[in-house]
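Co-fold these.
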Amino acid sequence: MSSSERELWEGIVDREALGEPPSAEERARRDHLARTHAECAAETEVYRVLGAAIGKASRQADESDRLIQTALRVNASELSAPLAPAPRSLRALAVVGAGVVSVLAAGAVLLASRTETAVVNPAPANGVVVPPKVASAPSDVERTARLEGVEGSVLVDGATPGGRARVALGSRVQIGTGRACLAFERDVVACAGTGSELRVTALGAQQELELVKGHLVAVLKSQPAGSHFAVSTASGVVRAVGTVFAVEVAKAGGTTLRVVEGSVAARMSGVERLVEPGQALVLGASDTSPVRGSDLDRDRAVVSAVPSFAPALGERATSSFAPGPRAASRGATDAARAEPSALALLELASKARSRGAYAEAARHYERILSAHASTPEGRAATIGLAELRLSRLGEPARALALFERYLASGGSLSQEAHYGKIQALRALGRAREAEREVAAFLELYPKSAYAGSLRKSK
Amino acid sequence: MTQYRNDEKLMRRVAAGDRAAQEAVLRRVRNRVHVVSTAILGNAEDAEDATQAALIQVLRRAVTYKGVSRIEAWASRIAAREAVRLATERRLRAARTAPEEQGKDLEVAPPAELASEIPKHIREYLNDLPEALRNTLVLRHVLDYTVPEIAELLDASPNTIKDRLSRARGELRRRIRRDLLASERAKVSHS
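Predicted complex below.
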């Protein structure tokens, strides 16, 4: 198997593994290589067998009711006694039996770990099997948010809450008149105003609220890696890792996001979009608009209670809404942290390209190149942007520079980059250089799909 | 946003404590949850523990179901998270309770008993991979999750997942080539 065939094979199947469907031509070439080369056939077989394992495993599933009945029992006992031991630990300890001893031996080590379950009282020595009590890190169900800054008529799950009530996963908070705030772990506060209704839909690393209706303002400190705070509505989801923003669901159902500080990723219909400070976006619309002063005043009123129970966040909220130039610079760090992933940007570029918004697609590609140049997406974006500049934006010189940049670092799209370089040289009228590149291309990739047309055009 | 209204209604009943609805949902998701657990953990006993934990989580988290995917797909994600968490816990616990193992690279998973239906040589290929790479490979190629979904399940960025996937595939490819080469050499020397 030649190195160019190997490169071709790896390029096609690896991109396919990352979720990029091969073209019909690539499929044909892939299948041909799998038929004619043992190592390609072996690789295909490994993945086929791995994929098939799932079907066989499903036939081996335990058809008895044992696991179902245990789950129902544990769930029922939790409802009647919310502080019951973690069921998984119960079952695991019951299953391992004597293994409890070894777990106990490691108890001191386990207690030091926040993520491990720690056994705090062992089974009695009289031989009676009693499930040991366990203390575990709180599950998402055991976590709660704190109700704060309540003014006016507020209901939690249909009942009037006591002072500083805890709000659990799944709880519904309704604000008739006035306002109320929920204080989450990791310095996240969300306050909602008159006529709002929200539901706690996730607690833990990913904290999330569903805003059914009304107006909500969130203030949060920079969240640790892997954590975020999100607000979902019927129109989409907005997600932040450290910022000040407002979400409002209109009576007609539309959702508006207003970013006061930092930046926030808004996702709707599978498309993610970054909204910068001082900008408002109606989810589903294509353009943002400047945040209006009257809206900011309403947002400020909703979070005015925050300093009383969360001074640090309150200070942030107060300064964010302070009159004068908006705190874009203060939010710069958070904006960087909320920068969408290279993959998200690549998707945005691809979608913009497919609807003919070539300048917008180019901007997305450029953002990938500036922030994620060394990633696979960065390399793919180099080619994507080069092709766009060459074929759609009439910028062959800039396209040529990008193709050459890609060829200098190498990659699975070298063939495409080389072919693009030839096209760019031709577009620039540098015919001799283009001819030299054609000869070099045919020598490197004699069986390439581009080879035929290049030979004809010589 | 809701696409599966009947599923959403059913899950509301589950969240409200309707035992018949709870049982119906558990019956629907049981096989899928078991498959996901087995694919990630391999070991039958661990897979059963993870299945049990995931079924409990399905009931606990019913209130968070929004009807944007079928209940089975939603439960699969819960199962994958539980299985990965269990695998990590078991690995950490094994390392802590066996001091003689501490000198070894903890990133490398102890050989797991993978599902018996996977041929031995492929099992060995997988066992040779570090746990993070193996989990990524299994989630992608056995369970058919997309890169963003795996990123969500493993709490990592899509770039990290793509990198792990590329490394896992590269490692697997190297081993396949090595074995093919060894087999060809053996044939030549035999002849």
